[in-house]
Amino acid sequence: MTEKIEKYKRIIKCPVCSGTIAYIEKKKIIGKIQKYVCQNNECSTQLVVKKDGILLNFTKKSDNELWKKYHHKKLTLREWNNIAEGGISDKEKEEKAKMAVLEQLRTGELVLQLTDEVPIILKKNEAPCLMLPNIQLHEDRMVRQRYGGAVRLMKGVYVGTSRGESHPERRHVDTGDLILTDKRLVFVGSRKSADIDLRKILSIEPYSDGIALSRSNKKNVEWFIGNLNAASITMKIEDRDYDLRFDGLVLKCMIEGFASKLD
Questions:
Q1: Dist CA 51 CA 116 (whole Å)
Q2: 3-state SS assignment for residue 191
Q3: Is the pLDDT of residue 2 over 80?
Q4: pLDDT for res 240
Q5: Alpha-helix runs per DSSP H in 133-210
Q6: What residues does each domain of the chain span?
Q7: Within a 13 Å sphere around the CA of 148, how many CA atoms are in the beta-carbon half?
Q8: In whole angstroms, what is the distance from residue 256 CA to residue 107 CA?
Q9: What SS3 class is residue 60?
Q10: CA 194, CA 120: separation in Å to the nearest integer?
Q11: 3-state SS class at 28
Q12: How far apart, in whole angstroms, are the C-alpha atoms of residue 204 and residue 106?
C-alpha cells in the first residue's frame, strides 16, 4: 500500500470522510493559495498547503475522531494519503515501534549489544552490552539542619531551645563510565566505583537524562545522570529509518530484560 500511495502527487481522497477531494489553487498579488477541499457538503474538510507541510484546517465533522487527532497538524502529502487509506502518521508509527522495542527489551526478547570493549574485568560467561562515558553519580544523603538557638546568660545557664530536622539532599559523588553487562551495572569513576548485581536492583526510575536506582544492599538511592545519547538505536519501519532516542527508559528496559534472565 505504501508504494501505491507514494506515487500520487496529490491527496487522493478526504482523510475525514473518504469522499472526493479537489485541489484548488488561487493566485494572489504575492504568492498563491493552495488547498484541498472535500466535495462532500456534509464534510467540507479543508487542508491548506504550507511550506513545511499540509495543514488540516477545517471540517464540518468536528466530532470525527480523525479530526480530533489531527486537526491543525502539518503532515506530508504521503502521510495524508496514508491516513486516508486507514494508516497513521509517521510520528505515530515511530512511537508505536518504540513501544514495541521497549517491551521486547523489557522482557529480554530483544538483546542489544552496543559495545564490545569495556574498561572492566568481565566475569565468566559475562557479555558487555553498553558503555556510557561522562556519567555523573549522585547519591541522596541525609542532612540535618538546626533551627533556633540558646543564649548563654552565665556559666552553665542558657535560655532558649534549638531543634533539628533531617532531610535528603542529592550530592554529586563522582563522574565516570557507566557499563551495562548481561549480569551487572558497573560505575567506574576516579574516586568512587559501584558494582551492582542486576538481581539486587529493587526499582528504577527513568528520566530523559538518566535513572534513579534503588538496590537491596544499599540504603541510599543512586542517580546516574549524563548524556545518554552517546548510544543510539536505529529502527526501520516500512523502509524508513528512525532514530530511537536513547534515554533512561531505554536503559531501564535493557536492565530489566537482562535481570529477567538471571536466576
A1: 45
A2: coil
A3: no
A4: 75
A5: none
A6: 2-88, 107-259
A7: 8
A8: 7
A9: coil
A10: 12
A11: coil
A12: 12
What distance in Å separates the CA atoms of residue 207 and residue 232, rounded to the nearest whole number? 16
Q: Write down the CATH number for the domain with range 107-259.
A: 2.30.29.30
pLDDT value, residue 235: 77
The pLDDT assigned to 3 comes to 40
- Residue 225: which residues within 8 A CB-CB, separation 6 or more? 135, 136, 138, 207, 209, 210
Residue in the structure block whose three cell numbers are 506530508: 76
User: Does 7 have pLDDT greater than 70?
Assistant: no
3-state secondary structure of 69: helix
Q: What single-letter DSSP state applies at residue 226?
A: S
Q: And the C-alpha cell for 252? A: 531501564
**Residue 53 grid coordinates:** 507541510
The secondary element (H helix, E strand) that includes residue 105 is helix 90-107
**Radius of gyration, CA atoms only, the chain:** 29
12 vs 7: CA distance, rounded Å = 11
Residue 6: per-residue pLDDT: 46
Output the pLDDT for position 148: 58
Dist. CA 128–CA 112, nearest whole Å: 10
**CB crowding 201-240: b at 16 or more within 10 Å, else e:** beebebbebbbbbbbeeeeebbbbbbebeebeeeeeeeee
Locate 132 and state its grid cell.
556510557
**232: closest CA among 241, 245, 242, 249?**
245
- At 207-223, the pLDDT tens digits run 999 999 999 988 889 99
- % of residues, the chain, pLDDT over 90: 67
Give how far Cα 255 sits from Cα of 25, 182, 259, Å: 55, 8, 6
